[in-house]
Write a structure and sequence with these properties.
- 2 copies of one chain form a homodimer.
- In chain A, the strands form 2 sheets. Chain A has a 6-stranded parallel sheet with strand order 2-1-3-4-5-11, with helices on both faces. In chain A, strands 7-6-8-9-10-12 form a 6-stranded mixed sheet, sandwiched between helices.
- Chain A is of the alpha/beta class and 334 residues long.
- Chain A contains 13 helices and 12 strands.
- In chain A, α11 (248-260) links the parallel β8 (242-245) and β9 (270-275).
- The mean pLDDT of chain A is 92.
- Chain A starts with a helix and ends in a 9-residue tail after the last strand.
- Chain A folds into 3 domains: 5-48, lambda repressor-like DNA-binding domains (434 Repressor (Amino-terminal Domain), Orthogonal Bundle); 60-159 and 294-321, Rossmann fold; 161-292, Rossmann fold.
- Chain A has helices at 5-12, 16-23, 31-44, 50-57, 73-88, 102-114, 129-138, 161-174, 194-206, 223-236, 248-260, 279-282, 294-311, and strands at residues 62-67, 92-97, 119-123, 142-145, 156-159, 180-184, 216-218, 242-245, 270-275, 288-291, 318-320, 323-325.
- At the A-B interface, α4, α5, β2, α6 and α11 of A face α4, α5, β2, α6 and α11 of B.
- The structure holds a DNA duplex (30 and 30 nucleotides).
Amino acid sequence: MNPTIKDVAQKANVSIATVSRVLNNLTGYSDKTKQKVNQAIKELGYQPNAIARGLINKRTQTIGVMFPNVSSAFSSDLLHGIDEFAHDSNYSVVVCNTDNDGKRTMKYLQLLREKQVDGIIFSSEVLNKEYYEVLESMKIPVVLVSSKTDFAKVPYVKVDDYQAVYDAIQYLISKGHRKIAMISGTKSDPIAGTPRVQGYRKALEASGITFDSSRLVYGDFSFESGGRAMEAILRKAGEATAVFAASDEMAIGALSAALKHGLNVPEDISIMGYDDLKLAQMVTPPLTTVRQPLYEMGKIASEKLIRMIETGDIATNKIIAHSIVERQTVRTLT
Amino acid sequence: MNPTIKDVAQKANVSIATVSRVLNNLTGYSDKTKQKVNQAIKELGYQPNAIARGLINKRTQTIGVMFPNVSSAFSSDLLHGIDEFAHDSNYSVVVCNTDNDGKRTMKYLQLLREKQVDGIIFSSEVLNKEYYEVLESMKIPVVLVSSKTDFAKVPYVKVDDYQAVYDAIQYLISKGHRKIAMISGTKSDPIAGTPRVQGYRKALEASGITFDSSRLVYGDFSFESGGRAMEAILRKAGEATAVFAASDEMAIGALSAALKHGLNVPEDISIMGYDDLKLAQMVTPPLTTVRQPLYEMGKIASEKLIRMIETGDIATNKIIAHSIVERQTVRTLT
DNA sequence: CAATAAAACGTAAACGTTTACCCTAAAGGT
DNA sequence: ACCTTTAGGGTAAACGTTTACGTTTTATTG
């Protein structure tokens, strides 16, 4: 058995209340007793028991984080940021990998509730009614990252997806492109799907380019789907001079496919991605992309959540600035 | 306040002991009372409090995982596997990002102890004496993944690094290469450094190829260092027909550098990596590499740890089989 | 039907803390 | 010298469970 506060009290010849007081450095003890207690603590190698502590003050100093897929580069960057701030604030983070599966998600939510986490970060997955209801019944703060919800009141941190791709397309146009194809993510995705194709269409429209549905093809954000989409584009819309993909993974899939077809990038076709994962710098040629600062977003989400936990007030939404990072996959048309 | 077991007891007109019994389905109650209790539970939306539970039975159903860098593809694949098994066994996992910093690591260890985790997975970082001592004083199971320690008794799961690169080099030799350069990871790393260059040297030796120190250059496992290393090789050992890198990231860095120098891969130079991260399939040409099944390793580590927690006996070491996955970066020399 | 065994259930202690409340003794004021 | 204040510190309840032990009720046996 590890020593408890009782052992410390005994060894220092004081009551456990006093030990507790010096531990939490409150007032109510002399300097001498403080010395004695600290001495006893050191000698016994005493460590407070956070569980007992948690039971009484109803705070576990733990937050839960839900990801559709922990091992994606996307999630893990976010996680890194979340963990950073959390640990600095003396919170632990427990991760849950939902696999985008409703049943699993509900089970994890259950688990987090039983474990009495102080707050939850919900990432990259839409917060539907079912989730929202249990979250609400848990009566703990929640923040969404890279996600939104129709149920107001739950703060999010994300970039403006619509605007980001609007800007990206405009960038492509400014480089002289007019025949621009898009590889969208999952069609029905209300955060990374719809708004992004909206941005695409509106940007085109704003430059007087008419939308051509044969240039819009859907993937599911994955590398493989990006490759397939590229094949489709090459088949159906071979005149396109540029393709914008709604994720870096898809963009890289598209890049591979293009290269495999003997096309040179960016000479024969320009490709632009979305996210700015580490991957983007690693491929050849390095990918031009729109950057979401994932690590920072994680940090901010974590910060908001912890503030909510500790102050009780409800956080505001935060739109994070995106930016275009120019590398070598888009060419200027002359 | 969320309802407690007491509320349930009251509503069902039984004692809390009885409620607890049906909750943990032990014996000692009739079917009717079981119904009553379950009814009350449902009506109140009662959820057990795992903290209180943890306090009394000294089990938190939580494991801690230490990574040098959570956001690396390497760690996150591991984490995925760990999380999978853990959650299936009703354990939660709390992540710690040590940044390879001793101070941080110690702080996290402290934290995990206070939080009373039931076990710890220690990943990709050597378990030095300092860490070992606190771990030992915590008296909870630990398993190492992709790591080792001099202090016996702590089980590990990893591939045989020496053998893996031995096989890789042999593979290269079987493809007709004799002038093989190597980009090693951190020189002093006792698990992913030294053994791997040993494998390289021995494999060369076994085929009667004399080791040439100008063909061995050191990086730090990162993409950038791979690029720099490749430059060095091109400068110092330009006759090399193949280069083996001790990580996929470095291999891809080397690939980029080679491509940038106008070399064709694999026509002008062959490149082989180590890890088989998702990245390896994404680059062009796709990387030939030696595969460590990270996800499975995570799962197995998790399984071992949980078995140790629940049975109390100490797990055995596990050497995971590696394999060579042939893609398109090595050419057969004729 | 009495005796006994077994089933059903309740009581209370325990887990390791925090904290409200109480007590004592010394210090300060008159 | 007496009263009041305050610093220092102790006692015990509380947090939400589990579980050993005891008690009552029911079923079983002869």
